[in-house]
Inverse folding.
């Protein structure tokens, strides 16, 4: 049962808020010790008590899980890092505030790769989260906690963040829906910055309509985020209908179906194309030759921005502080102890990419390639309405399997290009490969979330 | 060493007097506020907080740019300047590096009556950092100043003497005050200056010495003179001059070597992704241009022309726009400026503390009464001081004294004779050659008439009577 169905039952009086919360906590008790999807959890009795007053609001007091790099007033926000230990933020992220205003409650804070840097949720100071479909495997990342909680029915729905694929890839690996909106569609106020020009707030849900519902509630202008687009909110539920695929032209980039893709995965892509055609869509092969440059481009830009964004964790004002003779030693000791290996690796890479003498060669060039990638998408969208392909090249891999950072980065090759172009994209369950969930990704032009969700909904119905 | 020319360029930080900070809603006027009371998640650099540009600060900066005749970039952007310091909460300062708000322009000013023009290289917006407060228990951080808007003005190396640099700064202060964008008080840190100096021989420039954080006009002049002397001595001894950065010990008037340039920072500038590019519309530029007041150099020329004031007098009057405005109001009420300037510069200025100590109309009234010889200059000065010091208005003071100067020859003579008969000793003393006895006699009459007697006329009468 998805969020929308739960809401309907609640309104019709078939179920009480208390019963819903009890059943979520039953799942948590059954699975959480093994999965470790949450870093912190609300008190269920408190949720039931507080929820009564919210009955008249759109989300009627239902709990939503929140990724722990989104600032919340009543929970610590850790970003999966030791460096923020003890930090209690004094405000709510805009997306959280909007969910609360719509009658949602914060169920808890979900695990993530430290500061959202990773694709497996192994790089958290609170230990790894495991995949509900196979606990020997990763849930993807960095919103792995949110994806696992929704997949294990511990949560009705969750917010995540997507910088290079961090909502879509874990959604694919856990077999749930993961939506990344257009950059600027949802305010970043209260999203702890990893890479400011790429960070977005997204939704992990059990259905496309849940994703549409939650996006409608959190999207819209915000005077506190200068990069948030000044466009009024939309009701994306209105875009959902059976015939959404009829007459659409869908492009499948040949670079997204490379020779290395397993035969089972290729067979699934063929099936998606066939289903889309059955629904009246025209499916054509297209080419996005710059796809292979997305990975180095992304790692240069994201790491450069991260090197500055993470400079504030210096032990002076909040979070961890280690002793040091002088201020510089205190800062160095604090940052050495507070950050994990992957975070340090990216800070070092970003610092190097920005240094005098290397700026043009690395950061400057990456920015130019980013512009070219965005233009390549623009050109493609003059030919097709949507782009379709796998969300990630493989299903969930085993914990510890990708020790080599480059091998890890490669699991995001299909999500990085659209992130660099700031485009909206969604991953929906597309079937199974080796008995594990495999995600279908749709990418749309800027601000075409309605079209994206409509098509995803239509495909979801026929994929079963 | 002869043939060496001093070459000076300045980088000036001006605090803008906006109500709120550059990127958040916190109050910007931190002067005398208790530490860390004017802060929020944005200026404290908390995770998840984002900057939003204060449009008023942009307008203020544009006022300065247009007044200097700079070319405003229609599209500029902000950059991050990265370095670690405890008073810098984000670990970077938001500034404008690649494309500043405006480039070019010049400042016109006068040194001993001679006009100088110094070219401006660029002008940009940036945020201020916090402050370290050193205590016996260790250093504390006060973030009140963090995020206060600054305009940085960079000059071309057009200045030739330390004195000229000081005058340039004075003129800049005058301009900023006229524009109403900053208190520009160096003592309060509203105007801060870094200076670069090198010695040039035959047009070939030498190695630069940089002096950071100069906080007084005197300091600017002294520090530059010290840096010039330092370079000169080295050259005389045939030593090489290396790039260096100095601080300035204001108390002991000494240069302090801070770092040699080899240890220079790499600030890893890159465009600030949390802010959109800064677009300046033609509409906004027009609005700002239309709101510009008469600029100090135009006003200066007008003062000299219209009121026949000396260069020095104009300098003083224009030092504070309120003073210049006051002068103009008094001059208008009196009907001419020469006398108004005399009164303001010799009598009113010493009571001036940022605002008029006496309403312009009252000063004008006093000046007019003296001109019509209704009261003596002495009485006028006394009344002025009483009016400034007391609670009573000048009009009431005038009525109270019922002052009308005694100028009538006959009446004065009557009073003089009275005094002579009451003080025969003084008369005898004068006749015995003690000329100071005349002053005593005049004083007696003045006291009796409560200062209304025309003192110079009275002295003449006494002299006539005593001689006979
Ligand atoms: Zn603030």
């Amino acid at each position: 049962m998805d969020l929308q169905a739960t809401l309907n039952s609640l309104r019709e009086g078939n179920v009480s808020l208390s019963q819903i919360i009890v059943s979520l906590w039953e799942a948590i008790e059954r699975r959480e010790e093994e999965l470790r999807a949450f870093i912190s959890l609300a008190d269920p009795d408190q949720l039931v008590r507080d929820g009564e007053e919210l009955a008249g609001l759109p989300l009627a007091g239902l709990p939503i899980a929140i990724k722990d790099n989104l600032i919340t007033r009543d929970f610590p926000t850790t970003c999966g890092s030791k460096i923020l230990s003890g930090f209690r933020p004094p405000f709510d992220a805009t997306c959280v505030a909007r969910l609360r205003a719509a009658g949602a409650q914060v169920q808890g804070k979900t695990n993530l790769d430290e500061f959202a840097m990773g694709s497996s949720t192994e790089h958290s100071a609170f230990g790894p989260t495991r995949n509900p479909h196979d606990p020997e495997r990763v849930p993807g990342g960095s919103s792995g906690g949110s994806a696992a909680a929704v997949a294990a029915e511990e949560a009705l729905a969750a917010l995540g963040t997507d910088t290079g694929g961090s909502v879509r890839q874990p959604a694919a690996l856990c077999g749930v829906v993961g939506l990344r909106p257009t950059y600027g569609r949802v305010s970043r106020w209260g999203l702890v910055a990893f890479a400011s020009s790429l960070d977005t707030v997204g939704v992990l849900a059990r259905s496309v309509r849940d994703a549409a519902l939650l996006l409608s509630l959190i999207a819209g202008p915000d005077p506190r985020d200068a990069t948030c687009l000044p466009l009024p909110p939309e009701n994306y539920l209105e875009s959902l209908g059976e015939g959404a695929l009829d007459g659409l032209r869908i492009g499948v980039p040949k670079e997204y179906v490379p020779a290395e893709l397993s035969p089972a995965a290729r067979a699934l892509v063929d099936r998606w194309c066939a289903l889309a055609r059955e629904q009246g869509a025209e499916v054509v092969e297209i080419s996005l030759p710059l796809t292979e440059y997305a990975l180095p481009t992304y790692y240069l830009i994201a790491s450069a921005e991260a090197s500055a964004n993470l400079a504030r964790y210096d032990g002076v004002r909040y979070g961890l502080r280690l002793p040091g003779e002088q201020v510089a030693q205190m800062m160095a000791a604090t940052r050495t102890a507070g950050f994990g290996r992957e975070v340090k690796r990216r800070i070092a890479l970003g610092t190097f990419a920005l240094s005098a003498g290397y700026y043009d060669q690395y950061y400057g060039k990456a920015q130019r390639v980013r512009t070219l990638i965005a233009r390549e998408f623009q050109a493609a969208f003059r030919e097709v309405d949507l782009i379709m392909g796998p969300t990630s090249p493989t299903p969930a891999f085993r914990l510890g399997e990708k020790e080599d950072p480059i091998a890890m980065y490669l699991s995001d090759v299909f999500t990085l290009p659209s992130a660099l172009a700031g485009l909206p994209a969604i991953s929906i369950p597309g079937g199974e490969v080796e008995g594990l969930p495999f995600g279908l990704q749709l990418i749309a032009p800027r601000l075409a979330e309605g079209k994206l969700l409509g098509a995803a909904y239509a495909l979801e119905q026929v994929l079963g | 060493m002869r043939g060496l020319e001093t070459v000076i360029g300045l980088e000036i930080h001006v605090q803008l007097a906006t109500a709120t900070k550059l990127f958040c809603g916190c109050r910007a006027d931190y002067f005398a506020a208790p530490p860390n009371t004017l802060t929020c998640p944005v200026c404290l650099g908390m995770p998840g907080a984002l900057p939003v540009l204060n449009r008023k600060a942009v307008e203020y900066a544009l006022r300065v740019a247009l007044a200097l005749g700079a070319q405003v970039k229609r599209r500029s952007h902000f950059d991050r300047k990265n370095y670690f310091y405890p008073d810098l909460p984000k670990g970077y300062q938001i500034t404008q590096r690649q494309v500043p708000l405006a480039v070019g322009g010049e400042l016109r000013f006068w040194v001993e009556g001679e006009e100088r023009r110094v070219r401006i290289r660029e002008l940009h917006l940036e945020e201020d950092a916090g402050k370290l407060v050193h205590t016996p228990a260790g250093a504390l951080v006060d973030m009140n100043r963090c995020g206060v808007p600054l305009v940085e003005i960079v000059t071309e190396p057009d200045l030739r003497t330390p004195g000229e640099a000081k005058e340039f700064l004075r003129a800049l202060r005058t301009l900023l005050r006229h524009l109403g964008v900053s208190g520009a008080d160096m003592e309060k840190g509203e105007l801060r200056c870094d200076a670069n100096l090198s010695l040039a021989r035959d047009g070939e420039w030498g190695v630069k010495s940089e002096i950071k954080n100069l906080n007084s006009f005197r300091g600017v002049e002294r520090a530059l003179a010290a840096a010039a002397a330092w370079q000169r001595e080295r050259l005389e001894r045939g030593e090489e001059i290396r790039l260096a950065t100095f601080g300035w010990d204001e108390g002991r008037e000494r240069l302090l070597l801070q770092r040699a340039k080899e240890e220079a920072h790499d600030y890893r500038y890159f465009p600030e992704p949390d802010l959109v590019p800064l677009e300046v519309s033609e509409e906004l530029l027009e609005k700002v241009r239309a709101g510009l007041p008469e600029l100090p150099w135009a006003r200066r020329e007008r003062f000299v022309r219209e009121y026949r004031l000396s260069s020095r007098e104009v300098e003083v009057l224009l030092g504070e726009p309120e003073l210049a405005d006051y002068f103009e109001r008094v001059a208008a009420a009196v009907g001419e400026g020469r006398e108004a300037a005399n009164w303001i510069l010799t009598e009113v200025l010493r009571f001036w503390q940022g605002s008029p100590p006496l309403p312009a109309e009252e000063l004008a009234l006093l000046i007019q009464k003296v001109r019509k010889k209704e009261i003596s200059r002495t009485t006028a000065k006394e009344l002025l001081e009483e009016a400034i010091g007391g609670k009573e208005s000048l009009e009431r003071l005038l009525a109270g004294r019922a002052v009308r100067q005694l100028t009538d020859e006959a009446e004065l003579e009557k009073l003089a004779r009275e005094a002579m008969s009451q003080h025969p000793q003084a008369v005898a003393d004068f006749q015995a050659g003690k000329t100071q006895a005349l002053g005593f006699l005049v004083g007696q009459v003045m006291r009796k008439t409560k200062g209304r007697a025309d003192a110079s006329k009275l002295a003449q009468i006494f002299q006539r009577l005593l001689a006979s």
In short: The first strand of chain B starts at residue 4 and ends at 15. Residues B 21, 24, 26, 39-40, 42-43, 147 surround zinc ion (CB under 6 Å). Residues 320 and 430 of chain B are 50 Å apart (CA to CA). The two ends of chain B are 72 Å apart (CA to CA).
